Amino acid sequence: LRSTVLGCGSYLPENFLTNDQLATMVDTSDDWIVQRTGIRKRHIASEGEFTSHLAVKAARRALDSAGLEPKDIDMIVLATATPDNTFPATAVTVQNELGMHHGFAFDVHAVCSGFVFATATADNFLKAGQARRALVIGAETFSRILDWEDRTTCVLFGDGAGAIVLEAREAAGTVADRGVLTTHLRSDGSHKSKLFVDGGPSSTKTVGHLRMEGKEVFKHAVGMITDVIEDAYTATGLGSDDLDWFVPHQANKRIIDASAKKLGIAPDKVVTTVDQHGNTSAASIPLALDTAVRDGRIKQGDLVMLEAMGGGFTWGSVLLRW
Ligand code: ACO
Questions:
Q1: Shortest-distance Cα residue to atom 1 of ligand 1
Q2: Percentage of the chain with pLDDT > 90?
Q3: How is 141-161 classified by DSSP, letter by letter?
Q4: Active site residue ranges
């Protein structure tokens, strides 16, 4: 069995903040932000708009593009670091909002690598025959965990959601078949202090803010990303020249460009949307995917490499044929 992509969708909240607007809130400038990160604006969920609301909108669009209804899905995996509630899982709230009372839904928590971890998880359930069609969602409201007085972090992140639908299909098992070809996941908790939230339900403060040593994250990012991509090449015998599209986690244009360069991926194969929505953590890959599918770049049969690195640290890759 192979997990084949049937459709995708995404959603960004209506409200957004430009760099110039941010410059009225903290000591920063459009120039600084664009040069260091490539980000031009970020969308911010309105009061009362939660991660599940963004997720449901992206999920409905993904189902529409697949020509399916919630009754056709039997598994929801939702990647988020900003759940509506400590529990239940946001995936279960989404399941209910979609009117689904069958199958199963759960959250996966790997911060910015969340979508890669969720896709790998769903892929394994589908290949094992434990589900037939999965909704894989990445959804975040990072605006709720930012310290809006810390210019070193608040300029980088935004809110959003994206989703894909996967179906288990019989396949010959070659790299020419559509679907997820290989996934590679890694983590190393010794890097916790470089990127974390200084609060949580079992710590001294129940709600915290994102803290980051940006330079340290940058230093590790490119090496970790290229390692897991090379793992995918080793597993499949494919290489950068075979890729049609590179859809990286959208954290920072400089990290994306440096990774593509190190791997020898041509710039015109790189999908970059970070300028439009900043770092939306687990939502960023499906947001970028959906953009490139809807504007006609990614077509059925294309070879697509997804990768992410984030808090933990966690990092991983997904190589798939669309
Ligand atoms: N506006 C203006 N100046 C700023 C801002 C800002 N928003 N933020 C920091 N500065 C200042 C600093 O205070 C510093 O000033 P100083 O020289 O007087 O001390 C100067 O700019 C340079 O700061 P650095 O931190 O050295 O800047 P750097 O070039 O490293 O860029 C950045 C910072 C953009 C955060 C970079 O380190 C980076 O991209 N890191 C990776 C972060 C990231 O992408 N994290 C997410 C990935 S993991 C995940 O997705 C969860």
A1: 28
A2: 98
A3: EGGGG--TT-HHHHTTB-EEE
A4: 112, 249, 279
The count of domains in the chain is 2
pLDDT digits (tens, 9 = 90+) for 273-292: 999 999 999 999 999 999 99
Task: Determine the Cα–Cα distance for residues 167 and 73; give it in Å rounded to an integer.
Answer: 9
Nearest to 178 by CA among 320, 299, 61: 320
Q: Whose CA is nearest to atom 33 of ligand 1?
A: 214
Dist. CA 319–CA 322, nearest whole Å: 10
Q: Read off the pLDDT of each residue in 5-28 and give the average, rounded to a whole number.
A: 98
Structural domain boundaries enclosing 97: 2-169
Mutate to test the pocket of ligand 1, among 33, 36, 186, 192 (most ligand atoms within 8 A of CB): 36
Q: What confidence tens digit (pLDDT) does each residue in 199-229 have? A: 999 998 888 999 999 999 999 999 999 999 9
Looking at the structure, tell me whether residues 44 and 164 fall in a common domain: yes
In a domain, 92, yes or no: yes
Tell whether 174 is covered by a domain.
no
What band does 59 get if pLDDT is binned at 50, 70 and 90? very high
pLDDT of 261 reads 98
In-domain check, residue 105 = yes
Residues 253 and 123 placed together within one structural domain of the fold? no
CA-wise closest residue to 41 among 245, 268, 279: 279
Q: Which one, of 67, 80, 177, 53, lies nearest residue 136 by Cα?
A: 80
* Final residue in a domain of this structure, among 169, 192, 219: 169
Domain stop point among 151, 169, 187: 169
